[in-house]
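Lab notebook page, bench 4
Experiment: in silico fold of construct C2
Operator: M.H.
Input chain length: 149 residues
Purpose: comparison with the prior construct
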Amino acid sequence: MSKCSMQKKIESLSRKYEELSEYEQQAVDFCNKWGVTMKVGSPKYEKPLWDDKEHYIFPVTLTKDGESMRIKFGQSLADGNKKPSEYDVLAAVCKYDIGSFEDFCSEFGYDEDSRKAERTYKACLKEWKDVERVFGGDGECLEELQEIS
């Protein structure tokens, strides 16, 4: 890459950095500080566990210090097939222990006799365990992740 094209790329990234909202900036700063990378795959149009309407569902891989986790990120209907940002994903992941199935159902209004509730609970529990594994470490990283909402 020539020096001129490198300078243009740096200027473009600088402009993009300046245009970010406070929330987006918080997520980018978190990723930079902790060496978190995010890869977003091609979406599929399907029904997520949490809605009866189809959404674009993106496979997302988050990696930190050689540890990775993979999630399915359901984009909002308003954003359609727009690629999710670091903020979109980090704000959405399960960042707290969800407790027992009974606690989960009570907290989120699910019927304890529902198979859909059980599938959703298991998916959230797996996500929490992955978040804890990838970001838990010394606790400081997970605490900063929990501030992104």
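Observations: The longest strand covers residues 55-64. The beta strands are 37-40, 44-46, 55-64, 67-74.
Next step: discuss at group meeting.
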